[in-house]
Amino acid sequence: MRVLILSAGRGTRMLPLTRNTPKALLDLGHGITVIESQLNSIRDAGVKQVSLVLGFLAEQVEAKVRHFPGLECEFIYNPFFDVSNNLISLWLARHRMEQDFISLNGDDIFHPDVMRTLLAAPRTSEIVMVIDKKSRYEAEDMKVIVESERVLAVSKQIAVEQANGESIGMIRYMGRGALTMRDMLDSMVREPSGRDVFYLAAVQAVIDQGTPVGAVEVPQNQWAEIDFHPDLELIRTNVLHMGTDSLIKAPPDPRTRQK
User: Fold this and answer.
1) Hey, CA dihedral for 154, 160, 161, 163, is it positive or negative?
2) Where are the domains of the chain?
3) Cβ distance 62 to 76 under 8 Å?
């Protein structure tokens, strides 16, 4: 299994912090950066191969994690990072889609249990999306409609009252599912609109053509996304400690709860 991390964008919503620093290198606390937290969690989940799709100030990220302990890191440069969305970033990694892979948003922070849950998900669906469920969804959420553990729709445009889940930005593709996604990306980049959409538009297109996409749910407190400044501050308050552990607190162990 290989993880493809999409981390090419400029992170303009995090300005001025990202004026001269890529979002992947923002400090989460104790000197641990976003990308280091991701790589720690990936390695702790048992995955050893990672491809990072980079763009803005790519050389800074490469210098930081080129020799990351316990991982084999590959760097892919997206020269169109300033004029395209992340569908192009994923398409540039299509040479890695002849094997099973996981796509991961570059601004996700997660406990290793999140990826362990995905890796352990049943193989009944060759594409499986990690979701969480909340009491209330926001317009900016990547919302999903799920029925019987299958994703029927994924988009920010889904009405908040129709959504019953949120994509966290981590998806597993196996066997024909990986090849189906690669072929869909190849098709979509030929269209002018392919430059401007999230790669999840390709996942929706795969669903629309009849390929089942499964869903596996993880707790809300096992992951976080860095879109805006308050997100970063919230994550910094949840830092555990340096080392190989994730920077997101694991949920309480039910065996330790008082009865």
Assistant:
1) positive
2) 2-241
3) no
What are residue 103's DSSP bridge partners? 4, 171
Neighbouring CB atoms inside 10 A of 231's CB total 16
Per-residue pLDDT of the chain (259 residues; tens, 9 = 90+): 999 999 999 989 999 999 999 999 999 988 899 999 999 999 999 999 999 999 999 999 999 999 999 999 999 999 999 999 899 999 999 999 999 999 999 999 999 999 999 999 998 899 999 999 999 999 989 999 999 999 999 999 999 999 999 999 999 999 999 999 999 999 999 998 888 899 999 999 999 999 999 999 999 889 999 988 988 888 887 654 333 344 544 434 333 333 3
Question: Cis omega before residue 219 (within 30°)?
Answer: no
d(CA 216, CA 5) in angstroms, rounded, equals: 20
CATH of 2-241, one of 1.10.10.10, 2.10.109.10, 3.90.1150.10, 3.90.550.10: 3.90.550.10
Q: Is 40 within 8 Å of 86 (Cβ atoms)?
A: no
Whole-structure pTM value = 0.89
Contacts of 115 (CB under 8 A, 6+ apart): 3, 41, 42, 45, 47, 102, 170
